[in-house]
Amino acid sequence: MTAEHNAAGPPPVVIIGAGPVGVTAALLLARRGVRSLVLERHRDVYPLPRAVAADDEVCRILQAAGVEREFAAISRPAEGLRLLDARHRVMAEFRRTRHGRHGYPQTSMFDQPELERLLRDTLARRPECELRGGAEVTAVVPDPEGRVRVTYRDDSGEHHLWAEAVLGCDGANSLTREAIGAVWEDLRFEERWTVVDVRTGADVRCWEGVDQVCDPDWPATFMRVGEDRYRWEFRLRDGDRPVRELVAPWVSPSYDGDFEVVRKTQYTFRARVADRWHAGRVFLLGDAAHLTPPFVGQGLCSGLRDAYNLSWKLARVLRQGADEGLLGTYASERKPHARHVIRLAVAMGWAMTGGQDGAAALRRNLLAAACRVPGLTAAAGRDLSPPLTAGPLVRRRTRRGLVGTHCPQPWVSADGRRTRLDDVLGDTFTVLTATEAWPSLTALAHGLGAGAVAATDLHDGGAVAAWLNAGRADAVLLRPDRVVMDVVPAGGRDFTDTAAWASLLHTTRGPHPLQRTVEKSLLRSTAQ
Question: What's the pTM?
C-alpha cells in the first residue's frame, strides 16, 4: 500500500529521529509556531542509558524548549573532573561550579531514557508537533522547486510526504547523510572501550564528579550518574574481564549486596565530522553530522546546540520569509564549533589515556607537569564551548570581545517575581543596553520585531551591566539563541556593520521591513 499524506496539508518540517536532538528541535520550532512531524523507527524510548552529561549551555537550551524544571528534577550537579594516576592518586582537579554563566550547574548528570521520556511527554502536549513511532524512513529526495520528498514505511505500508525542510537527526548511520551525499572526515581517533552501567546500594568509593584514570595499561573513566547509578568506561587490550573485577578499585570485592549490571557493551569511540551539513533544505544534526569521543562529555551537548542554532533560523525563513541565505549560516557556524569541541575531546583522550604510540609516556609526563602549574586547572575548568567564528551573523572585528559569545543568564526580578533572564527577553532578537536605549537602537529593535532592554531595569544585582562593562560595550544585539551578534562599543552610537546582516534577516511577511529600518536607524545615528 502506498499513500500520500498531504490531505490535511503537509507539515512544513519533517524530523527524522526522535532522540533528544530531534525532539528538542521539534519543541524549539513549536515555540516559534512551526509545525513538524517527527518520524522514529522505534516505537518507544530506547531503555538503556547512553549520554549522561549536560553542561549549563545545554540546560539553557532545554529551558528554551520548555523542560528545564523537569530536567532539574531528574539530574544532579557534578563537581568536575579529576585526573588520577595508575594508583588512583589525584593528579589534578578541574572544578565545575553549580552556578555557570548560563544560569545552571556547569555539569549535570542524568539518565538519557529519563530525558527522552520527559521530552516526548512535552512534545505530546504541543499541537504543532506530531510523533509517529514505528515509522522507518527509506528515502529523502529534494526536488528542484526546493521541497523535499520523504518516504517512510510502517505497519500499514509505504507512505510519501512533501516537506519544506527535513532535519536528519538519525544518528551515526544516518540515511539523511547518505541522501545529501555527505561523507565523514576522519579526525584520527578510534579506540574500543567497554562501557558498564550499574545500579547498586554499595558504598562506592567516589566523589560527586568524574574520575579519569590516566593509566596507559588500563585507562578508565568513572562517574556517579544518579543516587544509586554509576558508569565505568574501560579501554581494554587483553580481552574481556568480569564486571566485579573491573570495578574492584571502587566497589569492594567482598560486597555481596545488590549490584545490578544495567548494561555492559563495547563501543568504538570515533572522531568524525561530515564534510557537508546540508543540501538545500535538508540538514544534518547531532550524530548524523559529527561524532566525538566522550572524554569531555560533549556528544549530546553538540547535537542540542545544532538544534538551537538551526531552529530559529529555519523558523524565520518559513514563518517570516527571511532570506534563504540565513540557513547557510547553520553549517558555517556549527561545523567549526563542533570540530573544535571534538579536537578538544581527542586531545583530552590522548593526554589522559596516554595513547598507544611511542610518545605516550612523554605526553603523560607533560600532563603531570602541566597540572602543577598554578591556575592552569582552574582555567581549564571553564566553559568548553568556544565563541562562534566570525560570519554574517557574528560581526567580530577582533579576536576578543563579546561578539560570538553568549550573554550570561542571571536571575532577574520582573513583575514582582524572580525569573531567569531569557524568560524576560523572549524568543526573538534583543537589543540589550547598559542604560536607556537611544532612538536609533529602539528603531532597530522594532524592525527586528524585538525589544530594547536596559540592564538597569533588570534588577539582577548588576550582573548584566558588569558583563557589558567588562566587554567595553554600551549595547549588544542578541540573537534568539542568545549569541552576541554585534556590539556598540563604549562611546559608540550604533552597531557598525548592520548592512552585512540586515539583508539576511529582512522579512517579507511583516509590517516592519528590516532593511528600511536599518537605513533609518543609521540616519538617526549620524544625525546624533
Answer: 0.92
For CA atoms 515, 520, 523, 528, the dihedral sign is negative
81 close to 212: Cβ distance less than 8 angstroms? yes
Three-class secondary structure assignment of 306-374? HHHHHHHHHHHHHHHCCCCHHHHHHHHHHHHHHHHHHHHHHHHHHHHHCCCCCCHHHHHHHHHHHCCCC
Residue 521: exposure state from Cβ atoms within 10 A (0-12, 13-18, ≥19): buried
Distance of alpha carbon 367 from alpha carbon 361, whole angstroms: 10
- Which residues lie closer than 8 Å to 522 by C-beta, 6 or more apart? 440, 494, 498
Q: Look-up: residue for cell 554499595? A: 202
Distances, alpha carbon 60 to alpha carbons 96, 148, 405, 408, 498, in Å: 16, 31, 14, 10, 27
How many residues are listed for the chain in this entry? 528
Give the separation between CA 117 and CA 19, rounded to whole angstroms.
Answer: 10
- Dihedral angle over CA of 405, 407, 409, 413, nearest 10: 180
Q: Which of 126, 103, 145, 147 is nearest to 38 (CA)?
A: 126
Asked whether the beta carbons of 320 and 507 are under 8 A apart, the reply is: yes
pLDDT in tens, 110-145: 999 999 999 999 999 999 999 999 999 999 999 888
175: left (phi over 0), alpha (psi -120 to 50) or beta: alpha
- Cα within 13 Å of Cα(243), Cβ side: 17
Contacts of 507 (CB under 8 A, 6+ apart): 316, 320, 321, 322, 449, 513, 514
What does 501-512 look like in DSSP terms, one character per residue? Answer: HHHHH--SSSSS
Residue 56 C-alpha cell reads as: 549549563
401 secondary structure, DSSP code: S
Structure-block grid coordinates of residue 287 = 550524530
Residue type, 293: P
> Based on the number of CB atoms within 10 Å of its own CB, is 426 exposed (0-12), middle (13-18) or buried (19 or more)?
middle
Distance CA 164, CA 142 (A): 10
DSSP 456-468: GGS-STTHHHHHH
pLDDT, tens digit, for every residue of 421-457? 999 999 999 999 999 999 989 988 888 888 899 999 9
